[in-house]
Design a protein that fits this description.
2 helices; mainly beta; five-stranded antiparallel sheet
Length: 429
């Protein structure tokens, strides 16, 4: 995680006119001071273009079509971790679906006809160059395409026939069938728990400032006026974007922005949050960096209740809350899967093996599926009753996704480092 800047900004304001006359005047004045464009070196031209024209556009993005069974981080823009699909049974088989690096950290994304595997610094063969980016694999395991990005990238988001992905350099809209880049906007914040939220034809992304882009063209619609140097990720509804803030001198742990213009609806003073929140109808649920689970009102940002949920011992090992109809689930280092009442915060039940590290669970229509770092997979009912438990040979490093009745899990096999073999595995019938 990069160190925060030494002079943080402490306020957030919206700017609904990104191409203001002041900006145009400043650019014209600067060019006039140079005398002629021909006096500028190629490097200077490139720098000016990147500063004043951060968007590159080849084609419009196609948002039509089926998004797929698990199209983004946490399944949906609200990051609920819940899907109407059903999961695997006790007799499920574990199979390698796609090779990747030793430690695949990003959640896998499953579209209607393709599985997106995001890898960083992967040496596919002994003498090959390191590769960081997206690998698109068909449901039959055949590779479709791959796109190189910066080593630090987030989880992709599929909307119709387009893939949106952030890395530390830019956000891109990519044709899901061909891998061709439709447009690029040079802003992004590429870490494991970052994913673009796309709703109402807008793409919401982090970076030095928080922005909304037109999902079809990549044009900037608005951005926050002040810098937000540690905005990690977001969740979104049609009306609001809930932004996680990972720097305690940049305001509260959460900001709520209006999707129409980026204006601040409220700022919550809870401690810093790097993980995305899970958004319900009346409240959102965040696990802060100290491991506390906090319920925050969607209406005004008031903290409703707090529970010390995830035993992360102050380390930067982030977890996400997920939602059932009436409970919020949280887990952490050496801490069982625990359900809390969404309204009161009362502990309802706990389940799963003890003394294992939990990845973010999945809520399906038929039950709740938990996965631990040590390779234990289990299912519990919505009342917390454990139905079955299996131990696999995978050391799990990426939280599971659920699609087509199977869990897609990132991890590695092999006892010694020389034998480690990383990839994404399918656990299904």
């Amino acid at each position: 995680m990069p160190s925060p800047p030494s002079s943080p900004q402490t306020s957030v304001q919206s700017n609904t006119q990104p191409s203001s006359s002041g900006t145009i005047t400043s650019r014209r004045s600067f060019l006039a001071a140079l005398g002629t464009v021909s006096s500028v070196s190629l490097a200077g031209c490139s720098g000016l273009h990147r500063r004043y024209f951060p968007r590159s556009h080849t084609d419009d993005a196609d948002l039509s079509g089926d998004d797929g069974p698990w199209p983004t981080l946490g399944h949906d823009n609200r990051r609920t971790g819940a899907t109407p699909a059903s999961g695997p049974g006790r007799e499920a088989a574990l199979e390698l679906h796609a090779e990747a690096s030793h430690y695949p950290e990003r959640q896998i994304v499953v579209g209607s006809d393709v599985v997106l595997v995001t890898v960083r610094r992967w040496r596919e063969h002994e003498h090959s160059d390191l590769f960081s980016g997206i690998v698109a694999v068909g449901h039959n395991r055949g590779e479709r395409w791959r796109l190189r990005t910066e080593p630090d990238m987030g989880v992709p988001t599929i909307v119709g026939n387009t893939v949106f992905v952030e890395d530390t350099e830019a956000t891109r809209a990519i044709d899901v069938e061909t891998g061709d880049v439709n447009w690029t906007y040079r802003s992004g914040y590429g870490f494991p728990y970052v994913a673009p939220a796309v709703t109402g034809g807008q793409v919401f992304i982090g970076g030095r400032r928080f922005l909304a882009l037109d999902a079809v063209t990549g044009e900037r619609l608005w951005r926050t006026d002040e810098a937000m140097p540690a905005v990690q990720t977001c969740a979104a509804t049609d009306e609001s974007v809930i932004v996680s803030n990972g720097y305690n001198e940049n305001g509260g742990g959460l900001f709520c922005l209006d999707t129409a213009d980026g204006s601040v609806r409220w700022e919550s003073s809870i401690p810093v949050v790097h993980s995305p929140v899970a958004v319900g109808d009346e409240a959102c649920y965040a696990i802060d960096d100290s491991g506390s689970l906090r319920a925050v009102s969607l209406a005004d940002g008031e903290e409703l209740w707090t529970r010390h949920a995830a035993g992360i011992n102050g380390s930067y090992d982030y977890n996400q809350a997920v939602l059932t109809d009436d409970a919020v689930l949280a887990s952490g280092r050496d801490d069982p899967l625990v359900a809390y009442d969404r309204k009161t915060g009362e502990r309802v039940w706990s389940a799963g093996p003890v003394d294992e590290y939990y990845r973010t669970p999945v809520v399906a229509s038929d039950g709740i599926y938990g996965v631990t770092r040590e390779g234990t997979v289990f299912e519990v009912g919505f009342d917390g009753t454990e139905r079955w438990r299996r131990r696999t040979d995978v050391m799990v490093s990426a939280s599971p996704s659920l699609a087509d009745g199977a869990l897609y899990i990132g991890g590695r096999v092999g006892a010694d480092s020389d034998e480690w073999h990383g990839g994404f595995f399918r656990f299904g019938n």
